[in-house]
Amino acid sequence: MQDKNFDKLAQKFAKNIYGTPKGDIRAAVLWRDLAPALVKLGDRKLRVLDAGGGFGYFSQKLARLGHEVVLCDISAEMLAQAQEQIDASPEPLAIQLIHAPIQALSVEQHGYFDIILCHAVVEWLTDAKPTMAGLLTMLKPAGLFSLMFYNKEAMRFHALVSGNFDYVAADLKVKKKVRLTPTHPLYIQEVKDWFSEWQMSLICQSGVRVIHDYLKKSQPVDFDYQKLLQMELEYSQREPYISLGRYVHFLGQSPTG
Fold it and tell me: How far is residue 19's CA from residue 141's CA, in Å, rounded to a whole number?
């Protein structure tokens, strides 16, 4: 099993990703993409799989809308955080927690789902494509697959504009890995080819953090993060900005049958 286990980094991961401007951007772009697609599935309770979902930001959001969620993660610490937040919720949340690598999930044990989320997971896997194909065996006809992945070309561009030319010349490989830098970033066309092979209709694609990660270190005194968020949403579905997103979000739909 090839999942990156964030047990030792759970607190740092949560602090770095959520409750920060970049976390707000991530959540806003993903929800902007997901919300209208959910409406098209009809006014009914949906089964949702959040594969590698950590403490389940979107699991909780979807459960609050009345959907039934299975949240799977290899990190016991992340799931402990999820359980704390679920317990603290003022309303009951229908979320089942599964402590396992996502490669261990199966239709036989867990059934079929209307929606499968897999956000910021594939870039940590050496077996990304077969693992995603395995998840899709659990997706119902006309179901939604929300995949967010770390964009290798944006990783290169960020290094270039930062002047890290030796890093670029070494094909983005370093002797000492930064613990929260993904080990297997992906090219956009590579993932598009996966979707075509799986006969998934790509109904939405967005860049995530198309501006934030390229901002100059010094900002004007009146810099407004809310305006940054507005600009991220405005430009995240336009080229060339999609291709500059630190992450890219693909929302696909499986064949109807």
Answer: 35
The helix/strand/coil state of 6 is coil
List of residues 6+ apart from 110 with CB closer than 8 A = 49, 70, 98, 138
Cα of 89 vs its chain's centroid, Å: 23
106-127 residue pLDDT tens: 999 999 999 999 999 999 999 9
pLDDT digits (tens, 9 = 90+) for 68-102: 999 999 999 999 999 999 999 999 999 999 999 99
SS (H, E, C) 123-136: HHCCCHHHHHHHHH
In order of 62, 84, 87, 189, the CA distances from 47 in angstroms are: 10, 22, 21, 30
Q: What is the DSSP letter of 3?
A: P
